[in-house]
């Protein structure tokens, strides 16, 4: 299982994760940034997996779903990393699964998920704030706990000393802020 969850490091690829609670615009922003920078983005495998489960069984995520979701997410990331040039935008990562596992399953995280989640390396996390409207769908379920979920995401980044920048405001403001930050990051990488 560990090999299936291993992140393959890619040449000089900058990996950026959109990270934060549900319904904060991560998918839309990942798509916009990938298009702007003419590169690839990694979709959120959990959404696809859980939508199929909901459509077939009317069930939401259960603890035994987390490892198959993690395997699918890392497979997508590794596949897109092999195709990307210079930048890769990840609409979530394994660490997000860790946050949800802790929030939904009494602070319990499967060690076979935790170890690769903490081992994976990214150049930057964009932490998406909750100041955009909640959009309901089949899978989203915590509209009244957005503050608590945001705090979980933020504290996870800080506890693990991971590089992040907060994105706030409407979609266009977030996009413009992210583009400026990425341009700065690209210059820093060239200078190294």
TrEMBL record:
Q: Which UniProt keywords apply?
A: Nucleotidyltransferase, Transferase
| Gene Ontology MF terms in the entry | nucleotidyltransferase activity
- A Pfam family found in this protein is AAA_28
Q: Where is the NadR/Ttd14 AAA domain?
A: 15-174
Indicate what this protein is called per its UniProt record.
Answer: Nicotinamide-nucleotide adenylyltransferase, NadR type
Query: What is the species listed in this Swiss-Prot or TrEMBL entry?
Result: Salinimicrobium sediminis
Q: Which InterPro entries match?
A: NAD_biosynth-regulator, NadR/Ttd14_AAA_dom, P-loop_NTPase
| Source taxonomy | Bacteria, Pseudomonadati, Bacteroidota, Flavobacteriia, Flavobacteriales
What SUPFAM superfamilies does the record point to?
A: P-loop containing nucleoside triphosphate hydrolases (SSF52540)
The organism's superkingdom is given as Bacteria
